[in-house]
Specification:
Distance between the termini: 84 Å
CATH architecture of the largest domain: Alpha-Beta Barrel
Radius of gyration: 38 Å
CATH class of the largest domain: Alpha Beta
Number of domains: 4
CATH superfamily of the largest domain: EAL domain
Structural class: alpha+beta
CATH topology of the largest domain: TIM Barrel
Helix content: 25-40%
């Protein structure tokens, strides 16, 4: 049986007054007859633009226009007797928010209610209007109209989507991300939950636009979006803020170990080559991370913290991640001023070079000199390379500084014996700069230095660039006769297969391998053993840097390391000191393990806090690894003592004393530390501001300084459970206030 025409429905619902007169009066003769009205209604209904519906007193369908029935994928027999709200539900983003069933239950007229097919397989959006029917005083159901607004609704929905999403990548845009961050933080603050915000900036993207064109840049951004989706994989929302800036909001995560792993994966996958129509492109990525409520409670505060962390990661050499820390703002101001002073120092010729001897372990003979940058500033005094080189890298001043250094090294080497080679670290920016190989060639030509005496130390990160350009540059340097060493091997992401193809002469093991760790004062010797074996298999020499003790030197010699640098032989020397040493004839150095040489390493030590029961001590952190630390400042501490180390800004590490000698203890952490993105370590978790607020403190992002200090300390001089040594910082032995 087909669908009942609306005329039959109309006739079946006639009121008693419809039969009063069979002939129209003279007054109504000029008006349209009921039959004509029905024909007009049927024409409208058949057009499909407007339909009609009716229900009984129970809300079950008694009539539905054939066009609507067809769009719903059913038949008239199937829909009759079905509740209307079973077939139609409020459309997405419907402003009223109430269900059709509630509308019908009120038994009041309504209009312009937007509904859609409950079955998602059928795309239909209707705007319903309805009026209740009464048989005398008894409710008899609803009768109404329905306009098809499917196209209009989808167009509006698409417009709303485009207003919230980036048209190029399909990711959320800046406006939507701001809304999402605001709403998430507001809801999470009430529920005392955490959320992480990552700020991403693509490195070398401008170079792609400039060399391959904007169309290639757009293709690359689309691929970046796809790679980000694969990494984040539903754990958070990704947004593109514009240009090459991206954001990732990760709810319910404050574990900095997990966040660091996500950041590393993002950096790694975004650094892989891209195929675009115009060719092959390689970029990098820097990431800044802030976590609510620790680093900020509101959108502006958290975004600013993530921005500062991103700025620090970019200025730290790019291709890195950084967590926000309270001192980053101060660091940013200092960095800006240092950039200005570095540029002036370059113009004024304030840079000099010093040289650390490279010693052959077989006979203690000096076979080379490693150049180190020196900057003596009028206000700052002597500034270490570790302090100003990252700033020079971030501002690209490293390119002219590095070019000057290569020429200076060549000039000074001419004054020394031909058997003595000189080496210099080359930054990735310097290596990738236009004309780098030509500048090296010109320096050699102008000075007349034998190219075999010049050694360029290349960091592993240079191997992650454009493969064709890297191979061309390395081949050109090899053709010049320059010696090439892979610097700080084992700290980056170089491929072993690439090592076989690159014309490298040596692998240089960084001092990070020799930091004392729990169970070994010599560092990670097993990894060193593997590097030596790899180097020998590839026909390369092995050089270990930062060797600070006799027992370490003897172990490296037994492993087969060829050459070393470090305090065990000599600190860096000025050119005049080098000249004096050479005037005495063949230059050999006897290794030494005296305190003066090791004391230089203590410049990196810092104060931390130790909490034991209800007492708080200030001690000196001597060494730090993932699994433990060495602290100095307390005497007569038995092994097995439980300590809580306070690294500042809510970072507490529960530890147990494993070794104790005089005023020095070796402690082992219950939970290993994780990378902080800046070459250091941090705790996975921090003391939550919600916990501090529960204890009576105001709810705020974690302030700088020590956690115990934030709780308030009462001085208890003389009541300390452990005796303070002469090496302990002042103001120790205070009692933690209850």
């Amino acid at each position: 049986m087909g669908a009942m025409p609306f005329s039959d429905l109309f006739r079946s619902r006639k009121t008693p007054t419809d039969d009063v007169a069979s002939e129209p009066s003279s007054a109504s003769a000029s008006t349209m007859s009921s039959a004509d009205k029905l024909l007009v209604i049927e024409d409208i209904e058949q057009s499909g633009l407007t339909g009609f519906w009716a229900t009984d007193s129970q809300g079950q369908i008694t009539y539905l226009s054939p066009a609507i029935v067809e769009r719903l994928g059913g038949t008239f027999e199937m829909v009759i007797g079905t509740s209307l709200q079973h077939l139609l539900v409020p459309a997405e983003n419907e402003g009223d928010g109430r269900s059709l069933g509630l509308k019908l239950a009120t038994r009041k007229s309504f209009s312009n209610l937007t509904v859609q097919a409950s079955d998602e397989k059928h795309e239909l959006v209707l705007r319903l209007s309805g009026k209740p029917l009464y048989n005398r005083e008894d409710f008899a159901g609803f009768r109404g109209s329905a306009s098809d607004v499917t196209e209009e609704f989808r167009s509006e929905e698409e417009a709303k989507r485009l207003a919230k999403f980036d048209s190029l990548t399909g990711l959320a845009n800046r406006h939507r991300m701001e809304q999402r961050i605001n709403s998430t933080l507001h809801a999470f603050k009430t529920a005392k939950r955490s959320a992480a915000l990552m700020m991403l900036d693509l490195d070398k993207f401008k170079q792609v636009n400039d060399t391959l064109g904007h169309a290639a840049g757009d293709q690359l951004l689309q691929q970046v979006a796809e790679r980000l989706r694969s990494v984040v994989a539903g754990r958070g929302e990704i947004g593109r803020l514009g240009g090459d800036e991206f954001q990732v909001l990760v709810p319910d995560m404050d574990d900095r170990g997990e966040l660091g792993e996500i950041a590393k994966k993002i950096i790694q996958i975004l650094s892989q080559p891209y195929s675009v129509e115009e060719g092959r492109a390689i970029i990098g990525c820097s990431v800044g991370i802030a976590v609510a409520p620790y680093d900020g409670l509101g959108c502006d505060e958290l975004t600013r913290a993530a921005d500062l962390a991103l700025y620090a990661s970019k200025n730290g050499g790019r291709g890195q991640f950084r967590f926000y820390a309270a001192d980053l703002e101060h660091e940013a101001n200092l960095r800006k001023r240092m950039e200005e002073d570095l540029a002036q120092a370059m113009d004024d010729g304030k840079f000099t070079l010093e040289y650390q001897p490279v010693v052959s372990l077989s006979d203690n003979r000096v076979v080379g000199l490693e150049a180190q940058y020196c900057w003596d500033d009028e206000e700052r005094g002597r500034v270490t390379p570790d302090t100003f080189l990252p700033v020079a890298e971030g501002s690209r001043l490293i390119i002219p500084i590095g070019e000057w250094a290569i020429r200076k090294v060549c000039e000074q080497a001419l004054e020394w014996p031909g058997s003595l080679r000189v080496s210099l670290h080359v930054s990735p920016l310097q290596f990738e700069a236009s004309g780098f190989v030509e500048s090296v060639e010109q320096s050699l030509k102008d000075t007349g230095l034998d190219p075999a005496r010049l050694e360029l130390r290349l960091p592993e990160s240079v191997l992650l660039g454009d493969a064709a350009k890297i191979e061309a540059a390395l081949a050109a340097l090899f053709k010049l006769g320059v010696r090439l060493t892979l610097d700080q091997f084992g700290s980056g992401l170089s491929s072993l297969s690439y090592l076989r193809r690159a014309p490298l002469d040596a692998l240089r093991i960084g001092e990070g391998f020799f930091e004392p760790m729990m169970g070994s004062d010599l560092g990670d010797i097993e990894l060193v053993r593997a590097v030596v074996a790899l180097s020998a298999a590839m026909g390369m020499e092995t050089l270990a840097s930062g060797v600070h003790a006799m027992d370490l030197m003897r172990e490296l010699k037994a492993l087969g390391v060829d050459q070393v640098t470090g305090f065990v032989y000599s600190d860096a020397l000025s050119p005049d000191q080098v000249r004096e040493e050479l005037e005495e004839g063949e230059w050999t150095l006897a290794p030494s393990d005296n305190g003066a040489q090791r004391a230089t390493r203590r410049t990196v030590f810092r104060k931390i806090g130790v909490i034991h029961e209800d007492c708080y001590y200030d001690v000196t952190l001597r060494n730090l690894s993932r699994s433990g630390a060495m602290i100095e400042g307390l005497e007569d501490v038995p092994t097995g003592t439980l300590f809580v180390l306070d690294f500042g800004q809510g970072q507490l590490a529960v530890s147990r004393v494993k070794r104790s000698m005089n005023d020095t203890q070796g402690v082992e952490f219950e939970q290993e530390l994780v990378d902080d993105g800046a070459g250091g370590l941090c705790t996975r978790h921090r003391v939550s501001p919600y916990e501090l607020a529960a204890a009576g403190a105001p709810l705020q992002a974690l302030p700088p300084g020590k956690y115990a200090m934030a709780q308030g300390l009462a001085s208890t001089e003389g009541l300390a459970q452990f005796k303070l040594s002469g090496n302990a910082p002042k103001q120790s032995g205070r009692k933690v206030a209850a």
